[in-house]
Design a protein that fits this description.
Blueprint: H1 4-23, E1 28-29, E2 32-33, H2 36-54, H3 58-75, H4 88-93, H5 97-116
Antiparallel strand pairs: 1-2
Length: 119
């Protein structure tokens, strides 16, 4: 598979699917906060990544995941919205500082792939 966009989507989809399934059984995956809602969202994103990586359109997935990651990463640093105890994202998705940084990094990498790789 020579298409970098689709390959990235496939790999990211596999990782998200594994994290999603793992997160159904714990509240922390390798130090990153998770809960059932976040795990279900990771499973859905992972399944789409698997589809896109094999049969779909990689750039659309990578751009979407990229912007979602960047937005979640930025929101994670905003007081009363972010990752501190009692904040909205912490309450809904069990997001901690490590998860906030991971969302931001994955989002930026996804957007770099989306905007710079032309297959």
């Amino acid at each position: 598979m020579s298409n970098v966009q689709k390959t990235f989507a496939l790999v990211l989809g596999i990782v998200l699917l594994i994290i999603g399934i793992w997160g159904l059984f714990t509240n922390s995956v390798l130090g990153f906060g998770v809960n059932v809602l976040q795990s279900v969202l990771h499973i859905i994103a992972g399944v789409f990544g698997l589809y896109v990586g094999t049969k779909g359109n990689g750039p659309g997935y990578n751009g979407t995941i990229g912007w979602i990651g960047v937005i979640l990463g930025i929101l994670g640093f905003i007081p009363s919205v972010g990752h501190a105890s009692g904040d909205l994202l912490n309450t809904l998705l069990n997001i901690n500082p490590a998860t906030t940084w991971l969302h931001l990094v994955v989002g930026v990498i996804s957007l770099i792939i989306y905007y710079s790789v032309k297959d």
